[in-house]
Amino acid sequence: MAASAARSSYMRGLRDGLPFLAVILPFGMLFGVVATEAGLSIFEALAFSIVVIAGAAQFTALQLLNDAAPLAVVIASALAVNLRMAMYSASMTPHLGALPMWKRALVAYFLVDQTYALSQMEFEAKPLSLTEKLGYFLGTVTPICLPWYGATVVGAWAGAAIPPETGIDFAVPLAFLAMIGGMLRTTAHRWAAAAAAVVAVGFAWLPWNLGLIVGGVAGMVVGAQVELWTERREAAKVVKEEADA
Amino acid sequence: MIDRTMLWIVIVALGIGSFGLRFVFLGLVGDRPLPPWLLRHLRYTAVAVLPALVAPLVLWPRATEGETDPVRIASACVTLAVAFVTRNVIAAMASGAGVLALGMLMLG
């Protein structure tokens, strides 16, 4: 009974995750291509995807390595891009925190944007048992995380055949812009992005790519502040409306 | 050419760091709530770091040795606009790549 419920949750997760293949495959291949253009071997590109398993952070690290940025800046910037994963970890804890340690470690490794988003929605919407929740999560992992490795290899293999004059250098900025466009959901997000871009350009003269760090920190602070102001304004409006009523 | 030692240090450090970020609450902290100010800043890390990284690359592309290129700027604007309106990353990248290819063909 429990096993079949877990299996049906797994299948549901798998089905919900399938549409994301349309994003995972091209992005994984793009990473393979860009890694090859940067001089990485197929094995190195694949190791990158298996060990790090985070698209945006992988592109960030590769770009900065290519620009010969200092080691600390490469690592700090790529990890900053991944800081949101800590938030995912926090919000999965009430649902999956009761699992044995090795299963929690397994979930943590596969906790990426898409598996998190799907699981969070499912767990909020339905009262599921612990095994069913794990089943659903692993279902989403199957079409989202596993093809990432294969796509990297295909891209790395194909990348060797793409000459640099095709403008492939600009693929990474375009990939980032496409991701940023989807993140600009609220006023605070838009201000954070704008502030970060302007400050990073203004401080681009700093050595060791430190303009990136300064811009990133500025964007975070601006985003957090705008969110705070928006909340206070909304709260004030509610109080005023209640007073008027 | 990327230095091999550096590459592997980055891969291993990012692997440990990314896993650590994903594991920290699930594995170690339990379901104690986080301070709101921390969550508020965490929310804006990706949307801040990525534009900070990309803006200089758009203004001063490496392929042109840092010379500002109107075709690349147009391509970047189109990508961002399409992504913002459609929320479709693949459509956005394809549009931007189309502008870039067309621009390079006509001006290059």
From TrEMBL, chain A:
It is found in: Cell membrane. Keywords: Cell membrane, Membrane, Transmembrane, Transmembrane helix, Transport. InterPro entries: Brnchd-chn_aa_trnsp_permease. It comes from the Bacteria. GO terms for biological process: L-valine transmembrane transport. It is a multi-pass membrane protein. GO terms for cellular component: plasma membrane. Its main location: membrane. The chain crosses the membrane at residues 17-35, 42-62, 68-86, 136-160, 166-184, 212-230. The keyword Kinase does not apply. Belongs to the AzlC family. This is Branched-chain amino acid transporter AzlC. It comes from Roseivivax isoporae LMG 25204. The lineage of its organism: Bacteria, Pseudomonadati, Pseudomonadota, Alphaproteobacteria, Rhodobacterales.
TrEMBL record, chain B:
The chain crosses the membrane at residues 6-29, 41-60, 80-107. Keywords: Membrane, Transmembrane, Transmembrane helix. It comes from the Bacteria. InterPro entries: Brnchd-chn_aa_trnsp_AzlD. The keyword Transmembrane helix applies. This is Membrane protein.
